[in-house]
Amino acid sequence: xxxxxxxxxECVGAPTYLDVLPGxxxxxxxxxxxxxxxxxxxxxxxxxxxxxxxxxxxxxRIIANQLxxxxxKLTPRLLKAHKLQNAQWYGSRRISMIQIVEAIxxxxxxxxxxxxxxxxxxxxxxxxxxxxxxxDFSDPNSMQAITRVYQREQMRKVLxxxxxxxxxxxxxxxxxxxxxxxxxxxxNETALLNEWWVPGxxxxxxxxxxxxxxxx
Length: 216
Hints:
Layout (H helix, E strand, L loop, with lengths): L22 H8 L5 H9 L14 H31 L7 H16 L4 H6 L1 H15 L1 H5 L4 H20 L16 E3 L9 E2 L3 E2 L7 E3 L3
Helix pairs in contact: 3-4, 4-8, 6-8
């Protein structure tokens, strides 16, 4: 008897043996014995109706993981802007004010994005630094130092957006950025039939429908 004949719902991706288990078996006999990461993997591989309710997952740990992701995305832009500012400060002629302002604008515009809202709600250090920068860049002297009119308008616009974000999303509490899920779940979509396990090398091939993580 084929696996598909036992499945009574629409599968998430290719069918797996999780699809033949009743929802109560998944929720009460399997999920309580899994770690946080494994629970997320199982939820991502089962239909919405069979997933463990959201209150089973620690919200703070999800926030901590998102803070880590947001920080990782912002860090390269921050380092670039800091490097350009220092080069200008020490009198490097190769760095223009236009380049410095553009780098700063890229950082501020990135902070406006919805993905980074958690940083101003759950990182007191980040929120305080951002408040300082909004005040500094809003100063008339700082604004006048921007030579290009279009950059000056961009700066005013993004500072206004950040001010509104800070007002709309007050600080809640400090949460330490920490990794929660080591690798997202994905699924093989290509039929490769010459796959096998080699001692010392691991999996060198996969069959259609095998489940694995991107880390693998």
